[in-house]
Design goal:
Elements (H helix, E strand, L loop, with lengths): L4 E3 L2 E3 L3 E3 L8 H9 L6 E6 H6 L2 H6 L10 E5 L3 H14 L3 E6 L4 H4 L12 H14 L4 E6 L9 H10 L5 E4 L17 H6 L4 E4 L5 H11 L3 E4 L9 H9 L9 H19 L1 H17 L7 H13 L3 H13 L8
Parallel strand pairs: 3-10, 4-5, 5-6, 6-7, 7-8, 8-9, 9-10
Antiparallel strand pairs: 1-2
Helix pairs in contact: 1-11, 4-6, 6-7, 9-10, 11-12, 11-14, 12-13
Length: 336
Amino acid sequence: MSNTLAVGVVEVPGRAWIAPMTGVSDLPFRRAASRLGAAYVATEMVACAEFSRGRPDVVRRAAVGEGLPLMVVQLVGRDPVHMAEGARLAARAGAQVIDLNFGCPAKEVTGGAMAGSALMREPDLAEALVAAAVDAVDVPVTVKMRLGWDESSKNAPEIAARAVARGARAITVHGRTRSQFYKGVADWSAVRAVKDEVAVPVIVNGDIVDAGSARLALEQSGADAVMVGRGVYGRPWVAAQIEAGLAGLDFVEPDAEARLAIALDHFRDSLNFYGDRLGLRIFRKHLASYVDNAPWPMQAEARRSARQALCREEEAIRVEHGLSALWRDPEKRLAA
């Protein structure tokens, strides 16, 4: 199996992709993962209506920056006019691939906004959104979806086929329905029905955390690539690790000092991008994940205490000192 996957005219040099994740895959995270070998890291979900109006926090989610081998912007919405405008703005900003979100299960997205995985219940509208984006831009448009809304309506093959007929160049399927949220286990085998239905690349998503789970997901789904979501929390090197495993190559996980350097570089990039105050607040989710995945043994209670103390810090320099002290002498947990 080739390591490169063609998405329209774009060649993605890897088959372990990192998913768009709200509150996680901002520009500093995408740069960190890219430095560590990730070939594909999508932006956070960008609401196309607010994006087209120039709302600052939404525009920031679509930020293009140096240090990215591939720029992928994910859009969410339910108005074809706004979707087309969002796609045009993303392409103008430098997006090389535009992904449409038909999979987010969050109530604030599927409820009042009636977007994300709510579109699995509206195939005609979903098709119209794909057509609007494809007609608006010259870059490849892809779609990320779930198996369906619930167990009685697993219509991913139908929506995938309609999306591809309208010009979508790849389909990602999370192996759960919207009603499952993240409960139970992802059904990778159910993704095979989508692969059988379309001739474009299919990417399987859900519960993929390492090379072993990636290999099983590919075998059961017949998919062309895997997409990693929550498995990258505190482990931005995981895509490269999976890539190596799928190729039968050895991968040496970053040791304690290397992980500390990764966390600190990521933290400093967050401060530079957002400013100290906002950067510190936004980084806390990553900070907690880095502590949770630290490579030294510690009692669960002590680790939790250290995480909470670090995430309460209001000064960037104290976070740096505390993280370094914790890493190098975990028994002390935090420097005074």
